[in-house]
Structure formats: C-alpha cells, structure tokens
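Can't paste images in this forum, so I'm doing it all in text. The chain is below; anyone willing to post the predicted structure tokens underneath?
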Amino acid sequence: MAPRIPSNHYDTIDFTSLALQYPAFARKLKPNGQLDFSDPESVRQLTICLLDRDFGLTVTLPPDRLCPPVPNRFNYILFLQRLLDSTSPTFRDSHDPRRRIVGIDIGTGASAIYPLLGTRQLANWTFLATEIDEVSRTSAAENISRNSLLDRITLLDSNSTSPLLIPTKAIFAGNAADRIDFLMTNPPFYASTAEMAASTKLKARPPNSSCTGSAEEMVYQYRGDLPTINTHSALKQALAGGGEVAFTAQLLHESTSPSLRHRIQWFSAMLGKLSSLPPLIALIHQYHARLLHHQPLPRSATDDVITPTGANYAVTEFIQGQKTRRWCIAWSWIPLRPPVSLARGMPGLGKRLLPMVTEFEFAFTLQSVATVVKHEMTKTKRGEETGYGKAETVVKTRWMQGIDGVLFESFCGWLKRKVESKVKSSQ
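Text version of the structure:
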C-alpha cells in the first residue's frame, strides 16, 4: 500500500525531479524544464508517472480516450473523504480507519482513476464502477487487474441503452453492495459534438483533461423521453440542454427514488463550468422541499428560481495551478450534516447559492452567566502580577443531524433567549 498523500502534495510538481526518475517523461520535457500541455503524449506521460511515483499504480491510457489529470482527481477523492469523515453515523467527526467505505464511480473511464486513487489512498475503501463505452471498459478492467485490485474494485455491467445512470439492480439485487457511502462522477462536459468542436477552436490550447477525450466520454444527451417525466420545467430544461448539467440533473432526479435516497449517503459530481452550479442547486432545494413538505415541484418557468431551504448539500472549488479550476457539488437525503467549513467551501459563491449555516454561536462573560454555566475566573499573569478578569464563554451549536432547517434555527433562537433570560434574572 502506497503511503497516504497529503492534500497539498500537488501544489507544485517538480518536473525536473520527475524526469530523473522516468526517461519517457524526460523525453517530453523541454530544455527549460517546462511541459507542453497542448501535447497529448506529454500529458499522458505526466499522468502515468505521477500515478506510479505517488500511488504505486501502473496504468495504460488509450491514446483515443480521456487522459485524466491526477491533481484535481485526487482533490475530489480528498473532498469526499472529508465529507464522509464529518458525517459519520457515529458522529466521530474525524477519520475512522475501521469504518468500511463503499463508493461508486459512474462512468469510470479508461483509466478507472477514481477507484484506483481511492483504494490506494485509503485502505478501508472499496469501489463499484460503471462504464458503458466498450473501449474504456476494457481498458479500465485491465488497469484494475494489473494493480491487483480486483478484490476491492468491481466493474459492474451497464446497459448503454438505458436512460438510467445508476444501475440500481446491478448494485443491490446483484448483491454488489447493500448500501453505498458515496457516488461520484465526472460528467460529460458537452451537449453535442458540434459544441465540443467549437469549444476547441475557440481556445488557444485545449484543456488538459480533454486532450484526447472521445465523443462517448465528452458528450451527453438525455436518452429518455422528456414528455413522460413527471416533473417541472427546471428539470426538463436541464435535461434537454445536455452536457454536464443534464447528466448531473439526471443523477439528482434518480437520487430521490426510495430505492436510492436511503441507501446512498452522498451523491456528487465534479463540474467543469461554474455556471452549472445555480440550476443544480435550485433543483436540490426544490427536491428537498418536495421530500420534506410533500410540496409538488414547480411547473412554470417563473418558479425555476433558488428558494433557500435546509437542503443538505456542499459545494467546493478545486484549484490546480494558475488556470485549472473545477467545482464539485454533493448532496444527501440522509440528514447527517457536514460542518460549515466543508459545506460552504466557496464563500464567494453568493449567499443564495450556499447551503444554510448549520453553526450558531453567541458569547457571554463568565461573570454574567455564573448561574447558568459553572466557571472559574480566568487567571492572567503579567510578569509577577496575577490578576483575575472577566473571561468570555462562547456557546457554539452545530447542527449535525436533521432535516428541517427552520426547526434548527428556531432551536438556536430559543437557546439564546433562554440563556439571556437566566442571565437577566440572576442580576
């Protein structure tokens, strides 16, 4: 097992040092020590070398399939680890190496990079993975076998003609798992091959992650019959638009089914466009309102706005280098809540787009709250003088489990009023 890699490991990559270890990579390095990221083979060699050096993984990457950058894929794994650690059913709020974690990667790709990284980084993780493209599926199976991970990574049979993205029967009826801790995916970016071609022409150099991506990997259009979906205009519009919004919206729609929402704790997707977040967040709030209050989903376009609720979700940003940014959204219908620092990982996103604040605090001096909280006066030593001052106590409340956000806010208000009342009555 390779050693656990710290979160800041890829803040900088020493290409010169890497070239000394890997001759194939050295041949791709420029005399000035830089790498040409517009060259697919250079990017492929970088990925192969990093996986070998840092994780002890040996992989082959087909030249006509996606070449995944290791740093942002690894960041996604670390984000999910923190999310799971902070929402443990035991309320441990820290990493528990004894907790057995089962994840599923939807569209694992030719590299199977997420299952490979996850199982190498965390000894208590196992994976299920899906892939409908035969070329990618064959390559993924070879990479899993080559690294002796067949006992920890299961490649599920997937139906390429089904409109469903989550193979519920293969997971549960096939006894692959009785519950899933997290679902992850890197959705197809484009809505059509024409959009994919146009985007490439507009850029001076193609993005690293799509340097060799095929249409099967990079393009998505909903395969179902839109008129038959009993839904509102926001979801229908998202599905019709294609690309990563349609793919993630379809996952969101499927995640609300009774067979999934209580058996998969966290659903998540890594996105390539910041603009994809608002419509998906709006859908999460609307589904939360429906599941909590049995409200019908809005059907008119004027209702397709973000109405904040106590929905349980998290957003974050992965920044790699000076240009590469990716965004992740995760949601859960199980009422175990992550801390604010993790759920609101993008403070600049905008208040209406961020999850509700699940931490509340207010302060009193220990002197004034003496009848409520047992205390001692704080000793302050300055030189040889010892004095006693009014130390401040802070009451902190974190919502760790629950569905109704209004109820939590009401409780916090009641708690504050109760303490204030006790303080006043003691004066």
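Residues 359-426 form one domain. The two ends are 62 Å apart (CA to CA).
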